[in-house]
Amino acid sequence: MKLAEFPEDIRNYLIPEPSGSMLYRCLMCRDEFDIDHLLYTCPSCGGILMLSHQSAPALPARDGALWRRIFDFRRMLNVNPLKGIFRYYEFIAPIIPLEFIVYLGEAHTPMVMANDQLEGAVGRPFYFKNEGLNPSLSFKDRGMACALSFLNYLAKSKGIGDLLTICASTGDTSASAALYAAYLTDLLKSAVLLPEGKVTAQQLSQPLGSGATVLEMPGVFDDCMKVVETLSETYPVALLNSKNSWRILGQESYSFEIAQNFDYRVGDKVIVVPIGNAGNITAIISGFLKFLAANLIAELPTIVGVQSEHANPVYRYYLEDDTSQRQFAPVEVSPSVAQAAMIGNPVSMPRVIELVRDYNEAAERKKIFFLEVSEQEIMDAMIVANKNGNISCTQGGESMAGFIKAIGQGLVPEGEIGVLAATAHVLKFSSFQEMYLTDQFPPEYKVKPRREFRNIPIHVKPKGMGKILETGTPTRGKDREAFIHEIVAEIARIVDLKKR
Ligand SMILES: *Cc1c(COP(=O)(O)O)cnc(C)c1O
Ligand SMILES: [Zn+2]
Fold first, then answer.
1. Is the pTM of this model over 0.70?
2. Ligand 1: does its nearest atom lie under 6 Å from the Cβ of 168?
3. DSSP string across 400-420
4. Alpha carbon of 466 to ligand 1 centroid (Å)
5. Which of the ligands is closest to the CA of residue 392?
6. Which of 5, 14, 67, 140 has the highest count of CB atoms within 10 angstroms of its CB?
């Protein structure tokens, strides 16, 4: 819709102007730093950072009803930079001029309601939010759109060129980072660091196709993370892991969208998300808190963070109920089908600890829970979800297995509705699907496929057809008719059809 056609009282709010200023704030020593240079940890104490916005005086004066109107009308606006995460511009990074915003089609992913069969099997109504429909096929694009928009702004306004971006990855961060860096090819070169053999072939192909320098090293993700952290402390590189607080801001759009898609009523929703490096759950908590503070929503949803038994440090931390007794200890991971979340020492843990406390305080009761699920439960859930019309990856299966567990533990009262993150596209993880459908899982995963789900291609080859037809060559002449006849009969037999 053209700007002139919007109601007069809303028109002036639709295309935002940069306002206020932003600061890095250290979660440990509370020191603040300006955003004029690249910063990933606190220069005073080494603590982890979050970004805060010192708003211009006009912003807090807007009430919740006005914000809701702005976002609902902005949805109809055809202005490119405001089509993705920056629909919520004022709540994300309201200092970046629109001309620097990079939009590659990310965000506003569909929420797909579980059909009756799946709802019946799980026990409550729920939606999958299909993050696999982002441009690099995972939710990572939300954070990357923000981080790269800021980098674009910083580099161009400060005349920095030839910057190298770098990240460690379980697969999806590198796919996303390389894609966005490739779009800014005049400005950036990108390198990604992967644990050898621990990303799928599809994930490996993504940064290669985007032209990144792809580095594989022995060890697991946690080792790669240590290497890129050391690199970013020693050399002038732009780190694109979720230690980079701009990524957290972009990922907060996930919460904003859920709120908007339920007409800002989320008190009866249960948001379920897998946890790896804990950037996404950090952003989800922070996002809902911001919308509550601005009166866009009246009540906070329940949040359930899910981990595999094979990579469960956050779950273990919260096993201790007494907050004064809690102690974080990294774990050594074992192979997990939720490979993108196979992380033993999550970088965002200090953010989680602070935000979970704030969230439960704001909700005036415990509204965030952490659960663990087995590899078997993850795979069974993914297979069942996809057999009912979804496109869930293994991490989406982890969400669903966690939702089932949450219902079993009485955390989801009758009448509440789940929103489960399917964090990537299932095709990135088709190797796990194949191991399941063909019963080929290596023993360390401890996954035994359910027999009724076994599914392999059936070769249709009626007896006597061999001489008529070779694989890959077309049938010719008289043989063709006989061939069609034979093969139709054979297919009818296999799929059990009766003649009309
Ligand atoms: C990165 C990733 C996760 C884990 O998210 P964190 O923010 O690291 O906790 C889960 N699923 C997929 C598909 C991912 O790419
Ligand atoms: Zn500090």
1. yes
2. no
3. HHHHHHHHHTT-S-TT-EEEE
4. 49
5. 1
6. 140
